[in-house]
Design goal:
FAD/NAD(P)-binding domain; about 20% strand; eight-stranded mixed β-sheet; alpha+beta; binds flavin-adenine dinucleotide; about 500 residues
């Protein structure tokens, strides 16, 4: 469909974007920059979705993501609008990348600098050369292959995959799990736990994710690990500034309750109780909830989505404490004594873990302004199962896990942590679902599982309605900030291509 002509004036095509997560915002930028008339409808009062912020008593908490990777994807988005990302969003590199703390007291930092890394590996009784380097080289090969087609061209379907990759598809590590590939290449038990847990980026299980997900270490070592100055929510602020400059209509506190349809096409949305006509709809509400609640999809259509099970949820514990723990770097992992058992508990048995691996963030190591002097902000995130409405967990179950988690941290070096808490907020999966309408409270979209979906997500273009597109963590390429941004960029490019306003390099 071409833009319509009224007299000599071109009437821009109208796009309604449902939800202002990074996926929706990226699509809005791409389309507004190409001349579409874009309106965003967001149920919450802030833009950014899971990029959310809480400030209390001088402590600033990033409620959502804390690690930014692949900054070139965000740069590419701003370039679509003729702007420089760095003029809108100030980034700072984080070093060391991660600190890894084990039950036996071993502490190993991950650092991109080879000489610093050599010293760290010595603590684990191993060396930089040999298996470690070979593993990073394997990770790079997997990343380059996935990036060159799946990421760059926004591939969505098996035929597109086969057309793009041909026989090279067999160079992807498809027949191992991530864990098996790690164990084959890394004899060292500490390194096995560390590299298995790169799966945290997509909230899945290393014993179920396909081997090519071992591309993640290269994302970190090859492109850096970044913090947004002032807090990660400044990424959403930068995007909001850009969207306002591009003339995008922004409606917050405005929930979409339906998508209008007619003869195989969508015709607009019902938002804030009013009808808004649109030529294209971009939906950043996750695929399954949107099909259930906005499209009234029949049970057979919903069953086709079963293989796109949600990624894990999380118990997100935000603490303001009245002391500083020297043990903590900016990003830290406190490992389970039996990590494969932890994966099994959360992802196969769908139970709360007894001894989870904990992700612990102390952002004041990079940005002292987030906590009062002499105090610290600490976020603790154990991955836990999504909500099973047939077998719901209660507040007491989550409270018991909170206690187990804080006891574990005290035992592993954060002495008397509970005594030093002055501010505390805990988000359960129930809060996450209520706030973002994510499928069963998932925090990273769709799970990456070799047997369920080979780590593919739903396609961006609706199979039922040709002018309806989905973006965000439940479509390809999946969850995490750079990936959902890519989905928005590619969905925008697909709409541009369909209207003859090309400029991107996506497959239509
Ligand atoms: C605790 C936590 C830690 C994380 N850590 C990291 C990390 O370190 N690094 C990383 O890259 N990623 C991380 N992630 C994942 C990352 O935040 C997400 O993958 C990403 O932000 C999701 O973007 P999205 O576009 O899919 O949508 P979301 O952010 O989920 O946004 C969807 C938006 O749509 C709105 N919406 C839904 N339904 C409607 C409706 N009917 N009407 C109007 N509005 C609607 C919601 O309110 C929401 O604002 C983390 C997430 C969490 C929660």
């Amino acid at each position: 469909m071409k833009p319509s002509q009224v007299g000599s004036a071109v009437v821009p095509e109208r796009v309604a974007v449902i939800g202002a997560g990074l996926g929706g915002l990226a699509a809005a930028v791409t389309l507004a920059a190409a001349g579409f008339k874009v309106e965003i409808f967001e149920k919450n009062s802030h833009l950014g979705g899971k990029l959310n912020r809480l400030v209390q008593d001088g402590f600033g908490f990033d409620l959502g993501p804390s690690i930014l990777t692949l900054p070139h994807i965000f740069r590419q988005l701003f370039e679509r609008a003729g702007r420089r990302f760095d003029d809108y969003v100030p980034l700072r590199p984080v070093l060391p990348h991660w600190r890894n703390v084990f039950e036996d007291g071993t502490v190993i930092d991950l650092d991109p600098d080879p000489e610093r890394m050599r010293a760290e590996l010595a603590k684990a009784g191993t060396d930089l050369d040999g298996p470690y380097q070979a593993f990073l080289e394997y990770s790079r090969r997997q990343y380059d292959l996935v990036d060159e087609g799946y990421f760059r061209h926004g591939l969505d379907t098996l035929p597109q995959f086969l057309r793009h990759y041909g026989w090279r598809i067999f160079k992807l590590d498809l027949f191992n799990t991530m864990h098996r590939a790690v164990c084959r290449r890394l004899p060292n038990p500490y390194l096995r736990d560390i590299f298995d847990f790169f799966i945290k980026y997509v909230g899945s299980s290393a014993v179920r994710a396909p081997g090519f997900m071992n591309l993640m270490p290269h994302i970190q070592f090859g492109y850096g690990l970044w913090y947004v100055d002032g807090g990660m929510h400044h990424l959403a602020r930068g995007l909001e500034r850009l969207l306002r400059e591009l003339g995008v209509g922004i409606h917050t506190d405005c929930e979409v309750t339906g998508i209008d349809r007619e003869a195989g096409r969508v015709t607009g949305v019902v938002a804030g109780g009013a009808r808004h006509a649109a030529d294209w709809v971009v939906c950043n509400m996750e695929v399954r909830p949107a099909c259930e609640r906005l499209l009234g999809s029949p049970p057979a259509a919903l069953r086709r989505l079963d293989r796109f099970e949600p990624a894990c949820s999380g118990l997100v514990i935000h603490l303001g404490v009245n002391r500083v723990y020297d043990l903590l770097a900016h990003h830290n992992f406190f490992y389970s004594a039996h990590q494969t058992e932890h994966f099994d508990t959360v992802f196969r048995r769908h139970e709360l873990p007894t001894d989870p691996t904990l992700y612990v963030v102390a952002p004041s190591r990079t940005d002292p302004a987030v906590a009062p002097p002499g105090c610290d902000v600490i976020k603790v995130l154990p991955h836990i199962p999504w909500i099973d409405d047939d077998r719901p967990l209660g507040a007491a179950d989550y409270a018991a896990l909170r206690d187990r988690v804080l006891e574990k941290l005290e035992r592993m070096g954060l002495t008397d942590l509970r005594r030093h808490i002055v501010v505390e907020h805990v988000w359960t999966p129930v809060d996450i679902r209520r706030m973002y309408y994510s499928d069963r409270g998932a925090i990273y979209g769709t799970v990456s599982d070799l047997w369920k979906n080979v780590a593919f997500k739903a396609p961006k273009r609706s199979p039922e309605y040709s002018n309806l597109f989905f973006v965000g963590g439940t479509v390809n390429p999946g969850g995490g900030m750079p990936m959902v941004t890519l989905s928005g960029l590619h969905a925008g490019d697909m709409i541009r291509a369909a209207t003859g306003r090309t400029g991107g390099d996506s497959h239509g």
